[in-house]
Structures are given as structure tokens and as C-alpha cells.
Design brief:
453 residues; alpha+beta; Gyrase A, domain 2; single chain; 24 strands; 2 domains
């Protein structure tokens, strides 16, 4: 293949089984007929940041160091979720690797995580400004002014549609449109586009819900806008589309509140401030940084055995990884917990440690993705609180779908769709993994090139 460009469309939550619903996926089904639909493994943990870091480096979490959607910074006893800096990802990203081969090659990334200040030629990623008057919705972009130029044509990107109780197809629609604006302005040889919409539906309704059909059709239409837009620009013949997902969803029926369990056993310490209970990460014997179906458990010296015993007795915990177990699952990095717990497929981990809502920390009832010491899927819902206000509920039965489980069986496989001239001739590994994607991209753009990793 010569003179190719690659467009990677990352549709979070898209499953192999969804391609059986061809009525809901007319545009993606048309790509299947002209290409190859394959099964591949995600990496563990099968959650957004680790998978996207592997997608863009070709490395596993034990090497790139992104072990969850959150980071525990041991030096200042702080947990932060959804940190955006590109520098948090260890190893060389695919756009850096390609630039070494061809400095004139252009790359772009739209809404992938950990791309703030990335060395792509074009980047757009949410970076709201928090001011004394509230939040200013804004996206960081490179080159400077790119986001503002796109806003003049398409309006501002609305973060309320990107996450929270109002999350909807509107965010993916804006991103799809912006990808074509970037194609017009930058003409990248490699373009990553992240479409998050399906993920919302699967958490709210579960993978087996009839509502999935309609949501599939919506996200297919946005992927189709990108595909058709490439054609309208006369670029179809030179474009290879790579459509993939990040993880498979499981239907879930309830949570496991690990920190509450640790507290009941005298292993989780809090500080009460203005009547509210906050975790004492400095002095607590143990705590869990939870993330969908995975929990990183950090322990003070002398408490590891007791904590492991508690996890072994906890209903709904399938795996407890330590030492060799972390190495086997490719998560043996210094950022990982001393223990890594995996819930059963039909469960997920909540971050709660309080018993009464009157004692909850101030951020618990809010959509506050950065300060919560655990991923909170209930931010997709809202309920009426006291005095006519609204708050995030804590009815964990509202969550119908989750992910993160290690890729141990066919139900954990995710789709890889390759479509474009010459894709049938690509030599692919027998056991595909999402970490193979950078090498596949390199082979498309530089046929026959081999480079030691």
C-alpha cells in the first residue's frame, strides 16, 4: 500500500455481538463488507485510560504506567481521576514513532485521554477553566486557536453532554463534525477520533437492553458522518479505516463498597471536617482506589495479609492479584496497588466509606470526576435532594453495565474492523491485542518496514 492515511475511530463499548444487528449499524456494516472484522483482546484493566495508553504506545500497563482511570500520587497522598497530561504515559506514542520515520507526516488526536500537550500536529481535548464565577467550557487545542475556529462553525463543545446526567449523542456528534474540520485544516496522515456515546447507554441500561439498538444506530450515524465526509473530500481511495472498541461490557446487579468493608474491619481511617468524613490517605491502614470492576488497594506496612484475608472473604471478588499475579496480568507497575482486586463479572466496585449521607464528603453528591477517589458511574443519574436541589444518587442498583474484567474468554474480546485498499494483505498476529494497533498503523503507512520495539 502506498500513500495511505489512517483514520482510527474508537467507539467505546462497541461489542462483537453488535455487528449482528446490521439494521442498527448500516455504515459500519458497509465497512465490514469491504474489509475485515476480527476479534482482539483489550488490555487489563479494560478501562479507558489504560486501554488508550496501550492503543497509542503498543505497551501494556506494566510498562506505560497508566494502571487505571485514576492516579494515586504517593508522595502527597492524593488521588486524582481523569488526569489529562500526556507526560503521564510512559513510552513512545505512535505519533512520535511515526515522526522519527517521516518528520513531514502529520498526526491528530481528538478527545483521546492523556493527550494534553501531546506532540501531535493537532490535538483537541476538554480542559474546562474553573473560575470564581463557575466553570468555563473550553477545550485545549493545538495549533492554538483550532478549537475556537471550529466553534465558529459548529458551536462550543458542551461538556454537559460529554459526561453526567445529560450525557448524550451530542458530544459524539460534535466530535465527529470536528474530525472533518481537522481533516480540512490539517489533512493528517493519522487521525484518532474517540466517540464515547455508546458507553453511556451500556452503563445506564446494560448490554442486553433493547435500548442498545437505538443507541447503536445513533453512534453508527456519527461514524458514518466521518466515513462519508472522508469520501466527500475525495480521500476514500487513500484512507484505511480502523474501527475498534476498548472493552466489552458485562451486565451487573450490584456494587462492592470495599472502603466501607475495610472501615468495618478497622482498616480505613477518616478525618471529620465540618461534619463530613474524608479519607485520611496519609494514615489509613488500607484503602481502595476503585475503577469499574477493578480496585487498586494500597496498604501500609504490616497490614497486607489482613487486607488480603478480608478480600478473600468478600462476596463478589473474583481475583486478588499480588506479586506474580500482577506480573501475569501485565499490571506490575509501581503505580499499581499493593493488591489489585477484580470483581465478579456481574458486580462493580463503589468508592463509598460512609453509612449516612449526612456524613458524605461534599463532592459525593456532585458530578465531580476529578476529586472522587474512585470512578462514580452514578453521575449518569440525578435525583432530587433536600430543599429542591439535585444530587447524584447512591442507589447502586441503577447501574446495569460495567467493564474492566481481564480478557480471559470470548466474552471479553473486542472488535477490530479494518477497511481500505490492501488491508486484506496485512500480516496480523494470530492472537490480536489492542497493543498491536500501533504496529498495524506503522505497517499501513510504511509497508514492509520493520523496527525493533
Amino acid at each position: 500500500m502506498k500513500g495511505k492515511r489512517v483514520v482510527v475511530i474508537d467507539i467505546a463499548g462497541l461489542g462483537m455481538q453488535h455487528f449482528e444487528d446490521t439494521a442498527a449499524l448500516p455504515r459500519l456494516s458497509s465497512l465490514v463488507r469491504r474489509g475485515r472484522l476480527l476479534r482482539m483482546k483489550p488490555v487489563f484493566p479494560a478501562v479507558t485510560l489504560p486501554v488508550q495508553a496501550s492503543l497509542t504506545t503498543g505497551l501494556f500497563p506494566d510498562r506505560h504506567g497508566v494502571v487505571a482511570n485514576g492516579f494515586y500520587f504517593r508522595e502527597d497522598h492524593r488521588i486524582a481521576f481523569w488526569e489529562q497530561a500526556a507526560a503521564l504515559v510512559g513510552g513512545e506514542r505512535i505519533w512520535e514513532r511515526l515522526k522519527r520515520k517521516s518528520p513531514s507526516l502529520k498526526t491528530a488526536s481528538l478527545f483521546l485521554q492523556n493527550t494534553l500537550y501531546a506532540s501531535c500536529d493537532a490535538v483537541i481535548t476538554p480542559k474546562p477553566l474553573h473560575t470564581g464565577k463557575g466553570m468555563v467550557q473550553w477545550c485545549y487545542s493545538k495549533p492554538p486557536g483550532l478549537y475556537e475556529e471550529i466553534c465558529e462553525k459548529r458551536g462550543e463543545f458542551d461538556l454537559l453532554h460529554y459526561w453526567g446526567p445529560l450525557a448524550s449523542i451530542e458530544s459524539s456528534r460534535w466530535i465527529a463534525g470536528a474530525s472533518l474540520e481537522v481533516m480540512d485544516r490539517i489533512r493528517p496522515d493519522l487521525l484518532f477520533v474517540y466517540l464515547p456515546h455508546l458507553d453511556y447507554c451500556l452503563q445506564r441500561h446494560g448490554p442486553g437492553s433493547p435500548a442498545v439498538h437505538e443507541e447503536l444506530a445513533r453512534v453508527d450515524a456519527e461514524a458514518g458522518r466521518i466515513i462519508d465526509g472522508i469520501g466527500e473530500r475525495g480521500l476514500s481511495g487513500e484512507t484505511v479505516f480502523i474501527v475498534l472498541s476498548e472493552y466489552a461490557f458485562s451486565a451487573v446487579t450490584g456494587d462492592i463498597p470495599l472502603n466501607r468493608i475495610f472501615r468495618e474491619n478497622g482498616l480505613f481511617a477518616v478525618r471529620t471536617i465540618a461534619g463530613r468524613e474524608y479519607p485520611d490517605f496519609e494514615l489509613t491502614p488500607a484503602f481502595a482506589m476503585v475503577d469499574h470492576q477493578v480496585a487498586h488497594v494500597y496498604c501500609k506496612p504490616g497490614h497486607l495479609s489482613a487486607v488480603r484475608n478480608i478480600l478473600e472473604r468478600t462476596d463478589g471478588v473474583d481475583h486478588i492479584l499480588q506479586g506474580e499475579g500482577k506480573k501475569e496480568y501485565r499490571i506490575g507497575h509501581q503505580r499499581s496497588g499493593d493488591l489489585v482486586a477484580v470483581s465478579a463479572r456481574d458486580r462493580w466496585f463503589s468508592y463509598y466509606w460512609w453509612e449516612e449521607r449526612v456524613r458524605e464528603p461534599d463532592f459525593a453528591g456532585q458530578v465531580d470526576i476529578h476529586r472522587k477517589p474512585g470512578y462514580d458511574p452514578l453521575e449518569l443519574f440525578i435525583e432530587r435532594g433536600e430543599h429542591g436541589t439535585f444530587r447524584v444518587p447512591q442507589d447502586t442498583g441503577l447501574i446495569k453495565g460495567s467493564h474492566g474484567y481481564p480478557p480471559l474468554g470470548e466474552e471479553d474480546m473486542i472488535p477490530l474492523l479494518l477497511s481500505g485498499e490492501g488491508t486484506e494483505a496485512l500480516g496480523l498476529p494470530d492472537a490480536l491485542c489492542i497493543a498491536d494497533i500501533p504496529s498495524i498503523i506503522e505497517e499501513i503507512l510504511f509497508p514492509g518496514a520493520q523496527e525493533d520495539r
